[in-house]
Specification:
Number of strands: 10
Order of helices and strands: EHEHHEHEHHEEHEHEHEHHE
Number of domains: 2
CATH topology of the largest domain: Rossmann fold
CATH architecture of the largest domain: 3-Layer(aba) Sandwich
Strand content: 15-25%
Radius of gyration: 20 Å
Number of helices: 11
Distance between the termini: 18 Å
Structural class: alpha/beta
Helix content: 40-55%
């Protein structure tokens, strides 16, 4: 199970919704939360920071709220370079994942997500859950069913293999649905003969079936596999739009073993274009 979550706190209008997400995650096995706020060293140097008492009061308020859901909660305020402090804390604190918020699937989502979050996503060695803010939400347990319908996107790379134990940890009840999706990306098939493509399909269907049997053995009762051909981003987004998963699980690196976050690849594009939460694995 996911036991311990690091939540980097940025004081915005959406923070209450993120706290509600943490409360909802208590229903999925989360036991501990660290509310972690970094005062940027640039704010101190430019004498722009004067809200420490307010920050502490809000963190204490959210700590008390989350404790009512049986969570062990601590908060910490440090000064430094935010993304570096977050990464350092995540790696030293044995956290299950980092929770970060995003505004959704608009063209300017990259700007709204913020440079700190971008760097955390890019450099984190622990998984990152990117939660998409809901415009009509006014609080509450918004993440309590976040693992109800899981879309696991795999390209059978080592990065995708690392996703498997995290998907296993998302199992909380026997009513959950797991969809395992593999896309034969047309960009990789331009110069491939049709008979070779048929061979690829046969091999990948066998791989998908093996994954299905694996997840059934660990307890998933409703597992479906899907092999499609097209452009990975379009296929994943189209499938997510029609099947309405509650979360998308994807590896950060593809078969090239290069960080897609640096190349504008599948995982990065999903983070910005999907209106569904994305669970990103290093």
């Amino acid at each position: 199970m996911f036991n311990k979550v690091l939540f980097p706190v940025v004081f915005t209008d959406q923070t209450e919704q993120m706290v509600g997400c943490l409360a909802g995650l208590s229903k999925s096995g989360v036991k501990e939360v660290l509310l972690f706020h970094v005062i940027s060293i640039s704010e101190i140097m430019e004498d722009r920071y004067a809200n420490e008492s307010y920050d502490e009061a809000m963190l204490e308020k959210w700590k008390s709220y989350l404790q009512d859901f049986g969570l062990k909660v601590e908060y910490k305020i440090v000064t430094g370079i935010p993304w570096i402090e977050i990464i350092d804390t995540a790696e030293k604190g044995n956290f299950s994942f980092i929770l970060i918020g995003s505004h959704g699937s608009s063209f300017i989502d990259r700007l709204l997500l913020g440079s700190v979050a971008e760097r955390v996503i890019q450099h984190a060695k622990v998984p990152v859950l990117i939660y998409k803010f809901k415009r009509d939400s006014v609080g509450g347990l918004v993440c309590q069913n976040i693992f109800e319908r899981i879309l696991f996107c795999t390209d059978f790379s080592s990065s995708s293999e690392k996703c498997i134990p995290y998907v296993e940890n998302m199992l909380t009840n026997h009513n959950q649905r797991l969809i395992i999706l593999h896309v034969q990306d047309l960009r990789n098939l331009r110069h491939v003969q049709p008979e070779k493509i048929e061979e690829f399909n046969r091999i990948d269907l066998e791989r998908l079936d093996e994954l299905k049997k694996h997840f059934e053995r660990v307890g998933f009762k409703n597992v479906m596999t899907l092999l499609t051909t097209g452009y990975s981003i379009s296929e994943i987004l189209n499938y997510a739009a029609t099947e309405d998963p509650t979360i998308i699980v994807v590896g950060k690196k593809g078969k090239t073993n290069l960080k897609e976050m640096l190349l504008g690849g599948v995982s990065q594009t999903l983070i910005h274009k999907s209106n569904k939460p994305v669970f990103l694995v290093e």
